[in-house]
Amino acid sequence: MSFIQARGEAGAVADAVVFEDVVKAYGKFHALDGLAFRVREGEMYGLLGPNGAGKTTAIRILAGLQRATSGRVEVLGRKPSDPEVRPLVGYMPQETALYLDLTVRENLDLFGSLYGMSREARAKRIDDLLEFVELTRWADELITKLSGGMKHRASLAAALLPKPRLLVLDEPTVGVDPELRAGFWQRFERMGREGTTILLTTHYMDEARRCARVGLMRRGRLLAEGSPAEIMAAAGVDNLEDAFLRLAGRGAEA
Amino acid sequence: MRPTRVLAVTRKTLSALRHDPRTVALMLLAPIMAMLIFGFAFGSETKHVPVLVVNEDQGPLAGQLVSQLDHVALDLSNATDLAAARDDVREGRAVAVLHFPAGFSAGASSGGAHLDLLLDTTNSQLSGAVVREMAAAAQRLLQSRGAPLPVTTDVTYAHPEAKDARFIDSFVPGIMAFAVTLFTTLLTLLAFVGERTTGTLDRLRVTPATEAEIVLGYEIAFGVIAAVQATLLLAVAILLYHVLVVGPVLVAALLVILTAIDAQAIGILISAAAQREGQAVQMIPFIILPVFLLSGIFVPVETLPSWLRPLSYLLPPTWAIQGLRDVMLRGWGLEHVWLHVAVLLGFALLFTLLAIAGLRRSRAA
After folding, report:
1. Quick one: closest CA in B to A112, which residue?
2. What pTM was computed for the model?
3. Mind listing the pLDDT tens digit for each residue in B311-321?
């Protein structure tokens, strides 16, 4: 099975995320089957793959919500379960995961308090975030009253509350209209420029082109890893979707 | 209106059951359980009422009368120390002292035998059973003797303020504990299942908040809600039904709040077993019906068969209800019901720790 290695500066930048030979087993089924990849600090990394590849499982282990069966996982140099790591990581799950009976502001206020922010710091941060995601006008609406796109934006705001060094996004643009999707990518790129490490999962191959590096995932492990250009070149195609299909095909033969 | 379309919907509704054995079990078991429990609760005669007999009669009449008493309805024990026996009744260890003075038999033949009855009226089912039984026994003795039986009973009350206690007075404490348990367990159960299904629990977990903090936060909220509920329940009971509240209302409120905290922790524990809100609601009858039967709301714990009684004491509401009756009907304060408060606190601690551990375990999966 071919495996493409990324060519970059070795050892110059710290690793924000390390996955080494990670297995997550549910009985006989291996959701992660020897997953290995690294995300450098400050880079935008995309985990690509079809549904069922194990992307969400990897993300949840990273966020400390589940534990790997075996292998090494490091987040900003620490174990995912380390309490020190909590305020450094922002997590945006696939579902809205906000309290439907609370307003946007009340939700953000709750999570802000849990991050230990003082009332003034919270108020300022919430106002800034609401502006960033353009929800200022709807700050005092119940989540249940918001449209899907607005809920998504609120969810992003909640993930950004603690000014995280590492932002982990699980399929952030699924079901999102093209305009909002463009808006999200603008925001991600802006945060990337400001130094935030971003790890996102997606099954939209075309979006992944915007990432510095991508890892193509299938059945719990990586098929290939590198910059989008490298992967396309190695697979001999001009888009990531075909690259994935080629590499997956080869993988099946091996 | 097309019958085929109507039947298509019927078919789909019944087919859905095929894939959901839990709901089927509920549909079949719940009515059976309800019938068994309510049948037992409302159909059984009050039994095993603890009564102390102090027989100082120098003749045989007292013994004859006692032997006519139904030994299943009343749990009779002989006592020799009258003062100690009266204390037992005042402290709730027995429901009545039946005292036959030395001249009982002699008095019967000379036109006036009298006996003393010290009665605890705080549970009208129990005290009612004693009075009924004595009347029935006297009737049976009369029939077997053939001759008239001039016996008078001097009744004194262990708790004078409760001497006219009605059924509703001892029922209201039961209803208060039951209502708070039911609503709190259900609300917590739904809230936590909701937290799991919407993913908000995960968002809580990625913050520095610990499971202990989450559980305690919920407990305080439900403690407050329970206090409000207790106030409303008491207000309605007192203003509308003139229910007795002899002792300190604050102690009664404390018992209700502790009941809510216990119920809330149990709600969190059970929430792990439900993947959807619908499943959680299905569990409710299986929790509520046993509580209704076993905690003395309607059936005095004494009436339950002896093998079932230990289970009563494993349920927090049993302790809350007895404590509430002691406060509201006996007028006891904290010095007397400290045990009930301590047990409820103990349950609260145990269930809270279990709930926290349960949440932690689901994260380690």
Report:
1. B207
2. 0.81
3. 899 999 999 99
